[in-house]
Amino acid sequence: MTDLIGTLPGMVKSSLESEENKLPVVETRDEFDVEISGTIGKPLVQNAKMSSRNCDVFYGDKQAIFNINLDIGKNEIIAMIGPSGCGKSTYLRVLNRMNDTIPICRVTGEHTLDGEDIYAAEQDPVLLRARVGMVFQKPNPFPKSIYDNVAYGAKLHGLATNRSELDDLVEASLIKAGLFKEVKDDLLMPGTGLSGGQQQRLCIARAIAVDPEVILMDEPTSALDPIATATIEELMDELKENYTIAIVTHSMQQAARVSQRTAYFHLGKLVEVNDTNTVFTNPEHKLTENYITGRFG
Amino acid sequence: MSDTTTKIIKAGLKKRYAKEKRFRFFGLMSIVISFVFLLVLLISIFSKGWSAFQQTYVKLDVELNEEVLGINKFSNKDALFSARYKKIIKNSLKKKFPGVKGRKQKRALKNLVSKSAQYELRDKVLKDPELLGTTQSFWFLAKDDVDVFMKGNIDRTLPESNRRIKDYQLAWIDQLIAEDRLEKRFNTQLFSASDSREPEQAGLKGALMGSLFTMLVTLSLSFPIAVAAAAYLEEFAPQNNRWVDLIEVNINNLAAVPSIVFGLLGLAIYIGLFGVPRSTPLIGGLVLTLMTLPTIIIASRAAIKSVPPSIKQAAVGLGASRVQVLFHHTLPLAMPGILTGTIVGMAQALGETAPLLMIGMVAFVAEVPGSIMDPATVMPVQIYLWSDSPERAFSERTSAAIMVLLAFLVMMNLIAIVLRKKFEQRW
Ligand SMILES: Nc1ncnc2c1ncn2[C@@H]1O[C@H](COP(=O)(O)OP(=O)(O)O)[C@@H](O)[C@H]1O
Ligand SMILES: [Mg+2]
Predict the structure, then answer these.
(1) Tell me, what's the ipTM?
(2) Which residue from A193, A222, A249, B329 has the highest number of Cβ atoms inside 10 Å of its Cβ?
(3) pTM, entire model
């Protein structure tokens, strides 16, 4: 307890103390001869868009996430890295309650969006998912036309009252996703006929069309070639003007290129969160260092 | 590799190849055997049945004598309807073959023409009373014995006592043939008439309509129920719940229950408890629904299960509710599989006989059913009934009915294939 708070910057420390927020110490692990005791670095920020406190996630009896405390700042891109199976996707799904669709999954702790409890009884997961959009690892356009793909969410929530409004919305979303130029003559062609990179941008356009505040991206480029990846990384840079983005990635270079802060997960625990620069140049924790230097992963 | 290892492997290789060869040979043989059986079956059905698509007609000169009939063209409809047309037919035959003596021969003479001749004549007169008083040549249905002979199924070299057609009848037939008064034509009767005790008048229309109505009831009940059940079990039911598991096991078991049991169930519950009228397409459809439900549910569940979860996740991630995901994505994508399962289930139901025997659909019904509440029979039961009839002419009709049923089944399977292809090619 005390040593954790000691590692937090003063500003966070004071806010923590005032809330009497307890960041408990994570139990010691023998693996790699390194101790994970709480989260090192700056897990909490002042202008948080979303935050989690004391987050545990269980799949049946098996615990996948251990006591995570993390803020995601407004209009920042936070990268989540860590070895496979360490719970990055699971944590991301906590933030838009996608875990609700997994029957055996149980989430505890407090989770807020703009200070509102997203797991409160009166919180509608449908509305939440409109505010917190998601882009998946494998591009998953609907087997419908490009137009219908983008228009789907808007239609679902009744965001456009007539056809021309919907047309404008589709166009605007495709422009923001940097796809409009390539597909403007083929809006009625199937979305599944596009290349992998285009499909992923289509999925981003589809998420943007609902006008979310936060976009969660789960390894959005891991199925793409380097050129398509570069296009999407550029796109993310533009998107952060208007959106808050949390991205899970396997590529350290990607995390370094696009994000402002980086969070390192290990075996369900949040080991270290810091400015991306710091994490990659001067990691505090031995595990983080091992991971970014490629000693395991 | 040492020489001995190579030798050992070589020796083993020979064995392996021999094994593979044998296995391929057995596989090929089983396919050949099944094809041979199928071919034998089809050939026997077609060779027996094709002749039923032709029917023998006989041309008679009928004198529409107003005195014999007791009517004239000014008589009212009732009188026209009930006039003595039978006598006219008899007279026309007598005139054609004068000098027939004895009750036996006289009856045989009358039996050259089907009993339906008098009704055909009546309908002609009702349509055009001006015919009265004139002499006309009409084609009438020949009696089944004549038809059987014309199709070469009676050997005239047999001794007379062993023949269904006697020498004097042969003489009449020969004379009619010589005068071009006997002719085989396409058998429209087979599709336009209902069942009859007289083979030459019997047709499939009643059974076809009965099957159609029964299938309509079955489809309109089993499709929505089965799809809803499958969607619930796949998408909404709690997982690892004992009750859900129990239901699943039971659905799978139901698919293996002998169909006659469903007939007994229908008899006890629908007829016994709810008083649904027996022998109707309604009760038939209700019973066949029970039978097809498991088939469609199992196929639909497999189809729903195979919809990629990533599509569903995408929709959920955009804020679609579970029902919206189901109706916008899961069901449309599962539809080809669901439809295939439905058509397979319907094809099973179309060919089903046993449960229908239990609920009275085996009755002789001479009327074409007009609704799901009319007494009716269905194609397979009609086949069963005809195959049970002693007349030679019914046996070719049995085969013809099987051919018609097979044609429908092949058609349904083609539709299933086309639907599947069409939905698959959409993107
Ligand atoms: N649907 C699920 N059911 C059961 N266990 C799961 C499920 N999804 C993930 N897990 C488990 O949770 C842990 C974290 O998985 P995940 O969040 O997918 O890791 P990551 O995205 O970091 O690779 C893993 O041990 C994984 O086996
Ligand atoms: Mg993952």
Answers:
(1) 0.82
(2) A249
(3) 0.81
